[in-house]
Design a protein that fits this description.
By secondary structure, this protein is mainly α. It is built from three helices and no strands.
Amino acid sequence: MRDSAPPAPPAVTNARLFSIAGPAMLANLTTPLLGLVATAAIGRLGEAHLLGGVAMSALIFLIARGLLPAARYPALVKTTFGSG
């Protein structure tokens, strides 16, 4: 019987790393940018209660994205398929 060694893992290069991590980084950057753009747009109207509504909705959106399991599924899929 022959002892066969396990195959060598593929080489980790910057291009391969960013091809996996790039979409995740972009997705994580777009969430705060949504609140920033909405604040800038509504802030031009000059009414404080409208700006307060935008701040509350951005906060609710961030909390919902962090707490809902469905928001975490893309990260789990990326980790699973990226590991192998």
